[in-house]
Amino acid sequence: MKEYASFKISSSFLLPNSNIYSTFTTHKNQNKKYPTILMASSTKFIFITGGVTSSLGKGIIAASLAKLLQARGIRVTIQKFDPYLNIDPGTLNPYEHGECYVTEDGAETDLDLGHYERFLNSPTSQANNVTTGRIYNNVITKERRGEYLGKTVQVIPHITDEIKRNFFKLGETGKYDVIITEIGGCVGDIESLPFIEAVRQVKWDIGVNNFLVVHLTLIPYLAAAKELKTKPTQHSVKQLLEAGIQPDILVCRTEHPLPLEVKKKLSLFCNVQLNSVIEAMDAETIYDVPLLMKKEKLDERVMTKLKLSAKKNTDLEQWKDFLGKLKNPTSEVKIGLIGKYVSLPDAYKSIIEAFVHAGAACECKVNLALISSEELHPENIAKKLEDLDGIVVAPGFGERGLEGKIETVKFARENKMPFFGICLGMQVAVIEFARNVLKLKSANSTEMDPKTAHPVIALMEEQKNLELMGGTMRLGSYPCELKKGSKAAQAYGKLKINERHRHRYEFNNKYLKAIEEKGLIPSGINPETNLVEIVEVKDHPWFIGTQFHPEYKSTVLNPHPLFVRFIAATIENKKIK
Ligand code: GLN
Question: Global pTM?
Answer without folding.
Answer: 0.91
